[in-house]
């Protein structure tokens, strides 16, 4: 048998991902774009409902308070997504709530000055105002790093090799949001997972009027089918004698969102009262802002790949971080009970649908704002059991992680140095946060447990984040271990042309500001 030729067993590296139907600046028809935008809105509901559902009861809030927080979070998500897609990186990214902020927020909830308040509603309001104050102050970190271009300078130390563990763990690091949650209600979670994979992958060749409807709208179709199935199980009394935890995760009537939601309510700044400011709370929250910065950096790079764009130049990335800082400031002013970061699941949906269009994401932002104002209608969609979302996360988070691994094509993986850095960064990025999680679950406090609460929150928040640990390890090793003679192995010759706006002619097509604003903010 004749030996295969080298070109038959290798695949040349590609600047832009191939196989997408629509890239960042090409658009489907208006009808298809609106349906795809609604699909992104439905997916964003998972995190937007889950964070307030967990935090509001701890603060003393009732179902009415929970609904208002969910509405406010969706409203601000819509605004932030529009700002980011118009004036930030201009990548098709949904800017949503972040789990990274939960550690410092829980610390604020347990602050003795707040927890001793006996009236539950008063405790909720005072805690909300304290969280708002911390978010407002800490947002200055991203605003300064972004608009001063300091993050652009920092990003010059990033190579394709150093970014692989970061982007990969943006997806893999959320493994506890996937099947562990599906397992809480396998009778709806597992069918959802199987159906979503079947529709989006195995049946993607099914066309209606030349439109791959099952691939393109797999999320909408499967969520509708499984939601109806879950409602049927609930109505038939299948969960009547099941444990309370099973009922909470399986029943479709336990969210109490529809009955508590007003018909029309427009969120507005300072709706909970004047924010209160505490230096300790603000320092703890700054760690979450830094984690959000790292996670969004990885997510922006993944989104650029799944939108068939070139990697964002350093100043564009920094500009996006500055606008995300504005988003966290708005979160503090409105009182969303969470900061802002790129929604990883929505980045994954770009790849699943093979539609990376910016217009689709802007339409989804319109749905977020519209349904956050029309409370009853928004609450109807928000009452989808979280297990259904978790099943989809199993696919979408994995897809984002694989985009991170795809950056290895620009590096030399026959180099022991590169194998060492990639393996150690990936392993520690998973292992260190898992240690922090297990320690906290057993001891009810993080490994950092000193008399300085702000210091504890800072360290515990940083090391709870897999992408942040991976960035620290990978970038340090990549820039200190035999770095002088390894530029080619690290992928720097490929990466360097995308560092500046004028380094590649395609950057102008993808990242130029609208309304001819580049005249006033010339790219570097």
UniProtKB/TrEMBL annotation:
The chain crosses the membrane at residues 38-58, 130-150, 157-175, 181-205, 217-239, 360-382, 388-407, 419-436, 458-477. It is a multi-pass membrane protein. GO terms for cellular component: membrane. Keywords: Membrane, Transmembrane, Transmembrane helix. It comes from the Eukaryota. It is found in: Membrane. The keyword Transmembrane helix applies. This is Nucleobase-ascorbate transporter 2.
């Amino acid at each position: 048998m004749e030996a295969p030729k080298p070109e038959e067993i290798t695949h040349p590296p590609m600047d832009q991902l191939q196989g997408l139907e629509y890239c960042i600046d090409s658009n489907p028809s208006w009808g298809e774009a609106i349906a795809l935008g609604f699909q992104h809105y439905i997916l964003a509901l998972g995190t937007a409902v889950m964070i307030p559902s967990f935090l509001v009861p701890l603060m003393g809030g009732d179902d009415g308070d929970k609904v208002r927080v969910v509405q406010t979070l969706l409203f601000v998500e819509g605004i932030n997504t529009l700002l980011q897609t118009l004036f930030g990186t201009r990548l098709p990214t949904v800017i949503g709530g972040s789990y990274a902020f939960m550690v410092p927020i829980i610390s604020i909830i347990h602050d003795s000055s707040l927890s001793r308040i006996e009236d539950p509603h008063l405790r909720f309001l005072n805690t909300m105002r304290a969280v708002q104050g911390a978010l407002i102050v800490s947002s200055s970190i991203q605003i300064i790093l972004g608009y001063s271009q300091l993050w652009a300078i920092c990003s010059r130390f990033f190579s394709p090799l150093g970014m692989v563990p970061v982007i990969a763990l943006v997806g893999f690091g959320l493994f506890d949001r996937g099947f562990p949650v599906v397992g809480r209600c396998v009778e709806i979670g597992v069918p959802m997972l199987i159906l979503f994979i079947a529709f989006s992958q195995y049946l993607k060749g099914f066309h209606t009027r030349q439109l791959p409807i099952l691939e393109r709208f797999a999320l909408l179709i499967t969520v509708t089918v499984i939601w109806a199935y879950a409602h049927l199980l609930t109505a038939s009394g299948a969960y009547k004698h099941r444990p309370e935890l099973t009922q909470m995760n399986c029943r479709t009537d336990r969210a109490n969102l529809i009955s508590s939601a007003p018909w029309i309510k427009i969120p507005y700044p300072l709706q909970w009262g004047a924010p209160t400011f505490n230096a300790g709370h603000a320092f703890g929250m700054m760690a979450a802002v830094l984690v959000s910065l790292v996670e969004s950096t990885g997510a922006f790079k993944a989104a650029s790949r799944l939108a068939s764009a070139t990697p964002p130049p350093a100043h564009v990335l920094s500009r996006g971080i500055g606008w995300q800082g504005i988003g966290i400031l708005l979160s503090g002013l409105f009182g969303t009970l969470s900061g802002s970061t790129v929604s990883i699941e929505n980045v994954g949906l770009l790849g699943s649908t093979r539609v990376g269009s910016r217009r689709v994401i802007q339409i989804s932002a319109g749905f977020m704002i519209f349904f956050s104002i029309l409370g009853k209608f928004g609450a109807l969609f928000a009452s989808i059991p979280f297990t259904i979302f978790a099943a989809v996360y199993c696919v979408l988070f994995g897809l984002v992680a694989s985009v991170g691994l795809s950056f290895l094509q620009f590096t030399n993986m026959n180099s022991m140095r590169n194998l060492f850095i990639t393996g150690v960064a990936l392993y520690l990025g998973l292992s260190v946060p898992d240690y922090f999680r297990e320690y906290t679950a057993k001891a009810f406090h993080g490994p950092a447990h000193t008399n300085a609460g702000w210091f504890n929150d800072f360290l515990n928040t940083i090391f709870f984040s897999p992408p942040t640990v991976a960035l620290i390890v990978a970038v340090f090793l990549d820039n200190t271990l035999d770095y002088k003679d390894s530029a080619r192995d690290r992928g720097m010759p490929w990466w360097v042309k995308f560092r500046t706006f004028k380094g590649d002619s395609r950057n102008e097509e993808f990242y130029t500001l609208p309304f001819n604003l580049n005249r006033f903010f010339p790219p570097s």
